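Below: protein 1.
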Amino acid sequence: MCNVLMTVRIRDIIAGIDRESPFDLAENWDNVGLLVGSPEHEVRKILLGLDPTTTLVDEAIARGADTIITHHPVIFKPLPRIDTSTPEGSLLQKALTHQIAIIACHTNLDSSKNGVSDILASELGLTEIAPLIPTTPGNEAGTGIGRVGCYAEPIAIREFVDRALNVLGLPVLQVAGPLPEMVGKVAVCGGSGSDLAETAYASGADIYLTAEVKHNIARWAEERDFCIIDGSHYGTEQPAIRLLAEKLSTIAAQSSWKIEILQTVDEKSPFVWLHQNSLTQE
């Protein structure tokens, strides 16, 4: 008897993601799910990336992907027009022309159990990881924004910095407030987590690692003798692409889907480091 391969469609991918990272965990200002394409679009090869860019769409075309899943939404605010002479319009035109669907898995992946901040905390070697701000009652335990965790034994600040640089893929770290000599408890929030600094401080963390720290929050950290590290938006969220690949691979295996899941190789941080007296970039 011949095995009949199941046709996988976008609606199946959406339903699978919803089981792992429920879309109802997304913030009410967010835009997640299928943003370009049809729910009936057949899926054979998926490309994962952090940001929906023309570079990512070009990579999808080159690698034969018919679906793109990004963390950040390709359409965030309502579009008053689609001008194909702009990068945004060109991206949408190219995706539609090549029949590439685009899905966003944003703040639902931030808040879900085993989400963005979980992998960041785990790769730093933290244990006893719990949400920094749990979701409202009624949601699954372990969901919420940010995470806080501990080391079994406190580690020296030099070791923590080395770990952070390695996980974030950065040559340097931007720090506000004094570095503690030893690190036992750490709060993290992948992406823009400046507004959670006071919560991180109240949690008893020795260090808060996040991104896009505002100037006034950096001053606040100085006054509180509290260490905040800005690990960049890309650095703190890039590990989430590997996490998303693992989640999708698990869903595919459980569902017996014959699809290929790729992680971007072309995507890089939009920022580079310029060194004094040199135009050498890192």
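Below: protein 2.
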Amino acid sequence: MCKHFWPAVTIVFFAASSTSAENSAPTPSSVFPPWRGETPPAADTGVPFTVPEVNNMPDFHGNPTTAEFVVFAGGNYFFVLKELVEAFQRQKPELRGRIFFETIPPGIIERQLENRNTITVGNLTLSIQPDVVQAGEQRIAALIEKGVLQGPPLRFVKNSLAIMVKKGNPKNIRSLEDLARPGVRLANPNPETEGITRQIRAALEQAGGQELVREVYETKVKTGEAFLTEIHHRQTPLWIMQGKVDAGLTWISEPRYQMMIGHPIDFVPIAPEDEHEDIQAAAIATNARNPGAARDWLAFLRSDEAKSALEKFGMTRLH
């Protein structure tokens, strides 16, 4: 069964160039996504036309015009989706090369769903009905309540916070309180689009009260020592490698991935007493075009193979 959504379009995607804040900061094209291992999953990829920093849409995977199964996933574990999709295709070879998946901020996914599954990046506008949506359990529960998704949801993995830093930790950041030090520049996940900000604010308050929350998320933003991300899981390591920032709170899986692919990134664990975990959930879309494959996908997420792939990056299985 082959589904056709929109005809082929010409993509012209302009990404804003960033200027390094330190003359010695690395700026090779390899710091820009798509990163090592992020290969297109489409059956026929046609003509390659990926140009780092200009034409590079790393969070849209596959061919939407021939897709027979579609997943919208919050982007904080984008690096494991490819491995999960490949494993799922081994179980369902009829879907090989015909899976499309997005790995963008969950707040943007929710807006996309509210806008008839339509999103525009640069000059490309894409409309495609998902079969499965994955995000934090609170957002998934809210989308079920709205009737966008079907319950019950599958809670399948949890993630912990960490402070992402440059390799060697040149600013000697050791705790959440150190993020408030003058001269420490931060990448802050955007509260409007990133569910992780709930856990970050809670952890900051646990460590230093509302004063620490205000310093990190208000004062530093106003003084130009903190920047709000638009694509949290991509921009934090990119900005660190470019020398724009010194640190950023992320899920621990994210610096682990960066280290695995050889980027000059490290992390500082959060003190156990300040830790706030998040549970990721998945649910079938109410208007899913392939509900059978969607049910199979949820069953696959419960499998040891899927859980082992997630645990490799520091995430913890729930079942």
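The chain has two domains: 29-158+280-317, 161-274.
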